[in-house]
Amino acid sequence: MNRPTAALGAVVMVSALATAGIAGLSQARSPSSASACAVARTRIPAFRGPQRLMHGGSIAAADAGSLEVLSAAGTAAVLPPDGIAGMLRHVTTRTGVGTAYVRDRAGADVVVDVTAGGTVRRFAAGGEATHPALSATGDLAWAVGGDLRLVASGASRVRVIRGPVAGGLAFSPLFRGSASIVAAVASAPSRRVPEDEYLSNLWRYSRRAGTWMQLTHFTAGADRWSVVRTPVVRPDGAIEFVRVTGRASADTQPTYQLWRLTTAGAHLVRGLPGERYLAGYEAGSRMWNLRDGSTGAWRLAAESADGSLRDVGCGAVMVDPLDRVDPDLRPGHRFAPLHEPAEASPPVAPSPVSSANAIIVGDFSTGSSAADAAAQITAATGLQAIVTDAGHLPALVRPGVSAVEVLIPPLPDPEEQLATFRSELPSFAGWSWLVAV
């Protein structure tokens, strides 16, 4: 199942929504203009390296090529330290734990985790990755298709958690303590609900029992749809989320509502004046992502006690950047396939010094330290390891550092080769990731 258009951010996935517009954002309760973002951007210094990200914050957003991190100390623009090409997407942060985000690329994505210790870890996502989440102890989870991926704190092994709905689509996981993960899950098409993404609900996964339990029980039909978006944890531990409902046959604005889930069940908090999505909480204030109708860019707004909103920054948190081209889009196709058909490219004779896939290890502050690592890798694995830098691989290595490119044979499962590499060289496990070169 292809990822629905903007299905994991803005709800523009059926014709009724595509034509609905965002009239609610022009009401008096919304921030006055998008120009506040441009003004704020000129006042914020751009930090380099992982230091600002390792401490985390309460809210983090993707804003073009930088990350905006909101905390009690203010808003800081941070240049991502991963050295990977790809669109920034779906940022999460946790004070004292770190920051994680997705590098959205054509085909399989990369999930980046900047830990509290300052380590920049890169994980092959296993497909189209969405919505990474961090636990209080540093566990990392994200969604791929109908399943979740989980990496325990300090570990390098990516564990697959099968989703609760066959053929469904999982998104927006969040940790509830150390024992469970709550995620939104969209149902697969059925006779009763025949379209993709017409129905989604919240589910809870027990890490101890390895089982799923459905938490909300919204329904839909052939013409009526109900979708859950942007679940976040309130300061009191309850979960809030946006529910969007409408009819595919109605060319009108859909209905947006704020809901809350407690131990007593889910209940409606209030209706919303238009399209908006939760971004989290900052200093006890509910934060929203609002879309600029003229540019498609997202901005952040804080909600006051009286319900009014004020601009606090720019960027997309749990929503997809709409002012950027999705790397998976190609002319004449909806989405790029994860693997090209065999006949898509003419056969190429194998070369001893080139490979369709490689493992990149880095970053190293000097070329000599990278050379030492390359010698260690070749001695341990027998694979060819080459010292490289931004001059040779500008899309993969950031300027000013060195890395090691480990060429791997074109076997059917490169991710298995990465897992083997990390097990043979555990000291490089958190420094290594899979790339196509």
Notes on the structure:
The structure is a single chain. The chain is mainly β and 437 residues long. The protein folds into 2 domains: 15-314, TolB, C-terminal domain (Neuraminidase, 6 Propeller), CATH 2.120.10.30; 350-436, 2-Layer Sandwich (Alpha-Beta Plaits), CATH 3.30.70. Helix content is 10%, strand content 40%. The protein is built from 5 helices and 28 strands. The protein has helices spanning 15-18, 35-43, 51-54, 367-381, 414-424; strands at residues 46-47, 59-63, 66-71, 74-78, 87-94, 98-104, 110-115, 120-124, 129-134, 140-144, 147-151, 159-161, 169-176, 180-186, 200-206, 211-214, 224-233, 239-247, 255-262, 265-272, 277-282, 285-291, 298-303, 309-314, 357-364, 385-389, 402-407, 432-436. The protein has a 4-stranded mixed sheet with strand order 1-4-3-2. A 4-stranded antiparallel sheet has the order 5-6-7-8, with no helix packed on it. Strands 9-10-11-12 form a 4-stranded antiparallel sheet, with no helix packed on it. A hairpin with a 7-residue loop joins strand 11 and strand 12. It is globular. The protein starts with 14 loop residues before the first helix and ends with a strand. The relative contact order is 0.14.
